[in-house]
Design goal:
globular; alpha/beta; six-stranded parallel β-sheet; 10 helices; 201 residues; 6 strands
Length: 201
């Protein structure tokens, strides 16, 4: 039996995925969460074989959560679900040590087979997406820098970001200054534009 943690913030989608997965005799959803900052804590409690994670989650995005799982619970393999198969996003998923990357509109049997493959340590990524990701430019930003820039892009202030990530305001400003330098941007707004156009956010 493959034990699965499912992270999806849309209740109807999550319910449908749970029902779909539990139809398979060898798959079982053992935990469900609706935000990214719950993933690591719940995974440590239930020790799943595979975490199926929506890439866009409140609290903490799916790729940041995937990095934390890889670092703190390497026995749990990660399968990312997304509605957008952009090359930059796929590249970030590969960098985050994600084992699988699947579009939400994929056939249901493809999800079950992807979970089985990922549980065995195999990488499952759509071939066209993988090729596009291979050809995409490398992102010079760290996962933490991307997380902070993404929050800034959503209109969060330095103090908001600091409070959400348990950092000091000075540390957040340092991260943002580093991002501006790495991207050869004129300022923070320009850095957000550059990163968005490159599909790094």
């Amino acid at each position: 039996m493959i034990r699965i943690l499912l992270a999806e913030d849309m209740h109807m989608v999550r319910g449908a995925l749970v029902a779909l997965i539990n139809l398979e005799s060898d798959l079982r959803v053992v935990a469900e969460v609706a935000s990214g900052d719950q993933i690591l804590r719940v995974a440590k409690e239930c020790n799943p074989d595979v975490a199926i994670i929506d890439i866009d989650l409140p609290g903490k995005d799916g790729l940041t959560a995937a990095v934390e799982l890889y670092e703190h619970l390497p026995s749990c393999q990660t399968l990312i679900l997304t509605s957008l198969g952009r090359p930059g996003t796929v590249r970030r998923a590969l960098d985050a040590k994600v084992k699988g990357f699947l579009l939400k509109d994929a056939p249901s049997n493809k999800l079950a087979n992807a979970v089985r493959s990922v549980a065995m340590g195999q990488r499952v990524i759509d071939s066209d997406l993988a090729l596009a990701a291979w050809e995409a430019d490398d992102c010079p930003l760290t996962p933490r820098e991307i997380e902070i820039l993404r929050l800034a892009a959503r209109g969060r202030t330095v103090s908001d970001i600091a409070a959400e990530l348990f950092l000091s305001s000075g540390t957040v400003r340092n991260y943002l200054a580093t991002v501006v330098t790495k991207l050869n941007a004129r300022n923070r707004v320009d850095a957000i534009r550059i990163a968005t156009e490159a599909e790094w956010l």
